[in-house]
TrEMBL record:
Protein name: UbiH, 2-polyprenyl-6-methoxyphenol hydroxylase and related FAD-dependent oxidoreductase
Annotated InterPro entries: FAD-bd, FAD/NAD-bd_sf, RIFMO-like
Lineage summary: Eukaryota, Fungi, Dikarya, Ascomycota, Pezizomycotina
Pfam families: FAD_binding_3
Listed GO MF terms: FAD binding; oxidoreductase activity, acting on paired donors, with incorporation or reduction of molecular oxygen, NAD(P)H as one donor, and incorporation of one atom of oxygen
Xref: SUPFAM superfamilies: FAD/NAD(P)-binding domain
Transmembrane segments: none
Length: 202
């Protein structure tokens, strides 16, 4: 029996940005798995954040943290997925793409029954419509805030939502907008250094 099954509804890697960054605590977990350097080498380090709404500064966060890692590592979700998939292949695990979970059932077991596989999941191939029933000891629903796994399990969402949007750009600005040089220096300057370009502040 396969020790790990990984199903993904998406048929390709994520092509657009979603949560394009890793916080220090997340990198600590990756360090425990031996993967931190693969992630931190991918993108620039953002050491502070300034948020504005309607021209009013809401927060200027220098990102203080007692972690061994500092700031937010800017890395796209597509890059993150590539690293995870590469690591799964090291353990002979392939991602089944175009597959969705349509039903979840959990049987009650005792603590003494360590060999039990109480989780039953029905998986459907989006292209062919064929279904497969998979039994497991654990089910991990890593499908975000709008988790279909959570909904099928009847687990309520206790978090908060926001109407704030953000974008990450690698470009050159000519503006008198406040704090732009700080953002430029952290994000754009490091990106230019990676391709060997000379950088001078305007």
């Amino acid at each position: 029996m396969q020790p790990l099954s990984k199903a993904d509804k998406a048929e390709t890697l994520t092509l657009t940005g979603r949560a394009d960054g890793l916080q220090p605590r997340a990198v600590e977990h990756l360090h425990a798995w031996g993967l931190s350097s693969e992630f931190t080498e991918e993108g620039p380090l953002l050491s502070s954040t300034v948020l504005f709404r309607n021209g009013v500064k809401l927060v200027h966060d220098a990102m203080p943290c007692d972690s061994r890692y500092r700031g937010s590592h800017i890395i796209t979700q597509g890059q993150i997925e590539k690293i995870y998939i590469r690591n799964l292949r090291r353990h002979d695990v392939l991602v089944e793409r175009g597959v969705v979970a349509e039903g979840i059932h959990v049987q009650k077991t005792t603590e003494q029954d360590m060999a039990a596989r109480p989780v039953s999941v029905t998986l459907r191939d989006i292209q062919t419509g064929t279904t497969e029933n998979v039994r497991a000891k654990y089910l991990v629903g890593a499908d975000g805030a709008a988790s279909a796994t959570r909904e099928m399990m009847g687990i309520p969402f206790d978090g908060l939502t926001t109407d704030c949007y953000r974008a990450i750009m690698d470009c050159q600005f000519k503006t008198d907008f406040p704090y732009i040089l700080g953002f430029w220096h952290v994000v754009l300057h490091q990106s230019l250094k990676e391709i060997g370009a000379d950088f001078q502040k305007a």
